[in-house]
Design goal:
Helix content: 25-40%
Distance between the termini: 93 Å
Structural class: alpha/beta
Radius of gyration: 28 Å
Number of helices: 16
Largest sheet: 11 strands, mixed
Length: 564
C-alpha cells in the first residue's frame, strides 16, 4: 500500500513537472513567435516550402566599412542569424556588411550563410512582403550611443528607402552588451513592424521578438546604414540636420502627441522609462518687473530651463544656480520654468521627448544624457558643465549637426573644485597606477594645489618618492583623466549668470530676426571652445571635401567660436 502511494506521488510530481515544461515550452515559442498563424497575423506574406524560396540577389553600394546592400529573399533564423538560398550549381561570391556605426574596434560584419537548395527541406516558410532592415547597435544602454550610433542611422536608412509602417527590423548585433536589464528603446518611432532581437534581455517592449527557430524570409532586405553618424573621426556618411529634425518630429508624433503619451508602448510596457517623469521637480520663477510699463507693456517672455543632474559627475550647487535665476528675472523680465530632471533611474525616448520638447536651455554635466537635447526647441542652448581639467569634443559634432547651440562650461577656479576620494581610489584600482603613501599629498594634488594639474602633481610626488616608472605613465594619465571626467563639480555662478543673461537676450534677438542655425554660427554664437573641427566639417563643409556636412547651405569657412 505504501509503495502504491509513493508511486502515485511520484507520478503526480512527474506529471506536474511535465506540465510545467509544456507551459514553459509554449511560452517560449509564443515569445519567439514560432506559432506561424500568430506570427504572420496582419503582415502580408506567402507561404512556400523552404526549398522553394527564390534565389537570393543583392546589390551593394559603398565599400569596406561603409558598404550597404539591398538583398532580395533574405532569410533569418536562430540557428544561422541569417542565410540566403541559392541553386546547387550557382556560383556565389558572399557579401558582408558592417552594421555598426562607430569606431573600427566595434565593427561587426553581417555575412549570411549560403544554403544550397538540395540541403533544405520542404517545411512551410513565410516569405514576407514587408522590407526587413538589418542594423546593429553600438551600446544600447548608453543613451547617446543608442541614439546617435544606432537608432538615428537606422531611421535615416529607413527614411531613405521609404519604409512603410509595416516594415520589420532586425538587430543583428550589439557591440557592447549590458546585463543590467533591457535598454529603454523602441523602433516604434519609425515602424509598427516587429523588431527582431537575438537576446532575451533585449525584449524591452511588445514590439521586440526573439529570432525564430523556424525561418522567416523577406522578399527585400536592406543591410547596413553606410557607416552613418555625425562623428567625423569614424563615420563616412553624415546624418543631415533635416533628418535629426524629422526624427524629433516622428518621436513626438508617434509617442507623445495626439493623446499618445498616456497610451504609448513605452509608458505601458516599461515603467522604468517613466522614472524621470515621475521624479521631475518644477520651479516657476515669475518676473517681478515687466518688460515695460503702462497699457502697452509687453507680456514677460517665458523660457524653460531644464537641469539634468547625475549621481556621477554631480553638479553640487544647483540650488545656488536656481537662486541666481530667481534674482535675474527681476532685471530680465523673464518667466522661468525650471525643470530638474533625474535620468539615473531611467528615461525612455518617449519620456525624454515629453520632458524636453519645450526646453530653451539645457544645463547638465557632460554625459550621455546630453543626447536628450535632440528633443529641445530648434536653436536651443546646451550648457555642458565639465569637471575641472577635463574637456571632450564628442558632443560638438552631433550638437552642431542637429542645430543646438553648444557650450562647454568648464570652471578653472578653485571654488569649483570638488574632491571625491572614493572615486579616485576606484580609478586607481581600475588603472593600476601607483599610490602616493601620504594622504595629505593626495588631497593636495586632487585640490589642484598651487594651480598644478592633478596628473602633474601626482607624477611629481611619485618621482620625489622614487616610485614612478615610465611604464606607469599611460595608466596614470588615463586613470586621472577618468577621475576628472566623473568627479563632482560646481558651476561658477558668478561667471554663469552674466553669460546666461546675454545668451537669453540673444535668443530673443535671433527669434525676432528669424535667424537660422548657419546665421547664428556666422555670428559666432553656435559652438564654444575647441569647436573648430566640428564647424569646419559638420556645419560649413570646408574640410573633408564637404562629405560630412549636415546643413544645405553652401560650403564656407567658420567665422569663429562662441566665446564668453
Amino acid at each position: 500500500m505504501m509503495i502504491f502511494h509513493r508511486r502515485t506521488r511520484q507520478l503526480v510530481i512527474s506529471l506536474g513537472i511535465i506540465s510545467l515544461l509544456c507551459v514553459l515550452y509554449y511560452v517560449f515559442h509564443l515569445q519567439t513567435l514560432d506559432d506561424q498563424p500568430l506570427r504572420m497575423k496582419g503582415y502580408a506574406h506567402v507561404t512556400l516550402p523552404l526549398n522553394h524560396i527564390p534565389n537570393a540577389k543583392w546589390e551593394c553600394t559603398g565599400s569596406d566599412r561603409h558598404k550597404s546592400c539591398i538583398v532580395e529573399n533574405l532569410c533569418i533564423d536562430a540557428q544561422t542569424g541569417g542565410f540566403i538560398v541559392v541553386d546547387d550549381d550557382a556560383i556565389v561570391e558572399p557579401f558582408k556588411v558592417n552594421v555598426i556605426n562607430a569606431d573600427t574596434m566595434a565593427d561587426w560584419y553581417f555575412e549570411p550563410a549560403i544554403k544550397r537548395r538540395s540541403s533544405l527541406d520542404s517545411s512551410p516558410t513565410p516569405l514576407m512582403s514587408d522590407t526587413l532592415f538589418v542594423y546593429g547597435l553600438y551600446s544600447p544602454r548608453h543613451y547617446a550611443h543608442m541614439l546617435f550610433n544606432g537608432l538615428i542611422p537606422l531611421y535615416k536608412t529607413m527614411r531613405n528607402h521609404q519604409a512603410k509602417r509595416t516594415s520589420w527590423t532586425y538587430r543583428a548585433h550589439v557591440a557592447m552588451q549590458d546585463d543590467h536589464g533591457a535598454p529603454l528603446l523602441t523602433t516604434r518611432i519609425m515602424t509598427d513592424g516587429k523588431d527582431i532581437v537575438r537576446q532575451g534581455s533585449a525584449l524591452s517592449t511588445d514590439q521586440q521578438m526573439l529570432l525564430p527557430h523556424q525561418p522567416i524570409c523577406f522578399a527585400k532586405a536592406v543591410v547596413g546604414s553606410g557607416l552613418a553618424c555625425s562623428l567625423t573621426s569614424y563615420c563616412h556618411t553624415p546624418i543631415l540636420a533635416e533628418e535629426y529634425a524629422a526624427f524629433r518630429a516622428d518621436t513626438l508624433g508617434n509617442l507623445v502627441h495626439q493623446h499618445l503619451w498616456d497610451t504609448n508602448v513605452i509608458a505601458k510596457s516599461q515603467d522604468q522609462g517613466l522614472a524621470c517623469v515621475r521624479n521631475m521637480k518644477t520651479t516657476f520663477v515669475r518676473p517681478t518687473l515687466a518688460n515695460g510699463s503702462g497699457d502697452g507693456a509687453l507680456p514677460p517672455v517665458e523660457r524653460t530651463i531644464a537641469i539634468i543632474n547625475r549621481r556621477s559627475r554631480h553638479i553640487t550647487n544647483i540650488p545656488e544656480v536656481i537662486a541666481a535665476l530667481q534674482r535675474t528675472n527681476a532685471t530680465l523680465g523673464i518667466h522661468y520654468v525650471i525643470n530638474e530632471i533625474d535620468f539615473d533611474e531611467g528615461c525612455s525616448l518617449a519620456s525624454s521627448a515629453y520632458l524636453l520638447e519645450h526646453t530653451d536651455v539645457l544645463l547638465t554635466p557632460h554625459g550621455s544624457q546630453e543626447a536628450a537635447a535632440l528633443f529641445m526647441k530648434d536653436n536651443g542652448v546646451v550648457l555642458s558643465i565639465d569637471g575641472r581639467g577635463y574637456q571632450e569634443i564628442w558632443f560638438h559634432f552631433v550638437m552642431t549637426a542637429m542645430g543646438r547651440r553648444f557650450y562647454n562650461f568648464e570652471c578653472h577656479e578653485d571654488i569649483c573644485t570638488e574632491i571625491d576620494r572614493k572615486l579616485f581610489d576606484k580609478m586607481r584600482n581600475i588603472y593600476k597606477f601607483p599610490m602616493i603613501p601620504s594622504e595629505e599629498e593626495i588631497q593636495g594634488c586632487l585640490a589642484w594645489e598651487n594651480g598644478v594639474l592633478v596628473r602633474d602633481c601626482y607624477r611629481a610626488r611619485l618621482k620625489e618618492r622614487h616610485i614612478y616608472r615610465e611604464d606607469d605613465e599611460a595608466r596614470l594619465v588615463e586613470g586621472i583623466s577618468s577621475y576628472l571626467k566623473d568627479t563632482p563639480r560646481k558651476v561658477n555662478v558668478a561667471r554663469l549668470m552674466p553669460f546666461l543673461e546675454r545668451t537669453l537676450r540673444e535668443m530673443s534677438e535671433f527669434e525676432h530676426e528669424n535667424a537660422d542655425y548657419r546665421m547664428i554660427c556666422d555670428a559666432k554664437k553656435c559652438c564654444g571652445d575647441a569647436c573648430e573641427w566640428a564647424l569646419e566639417t559638420v556645419v560649413y563643409g570646408s574640410q573633408l571635401e564637404g562629405r560630412m556636412k549636415a546643413w544645405p547651405d553652401k560650403i564656407g569657412e567658420p567665422q569663429g567660436n562662441w566665446i564668453e
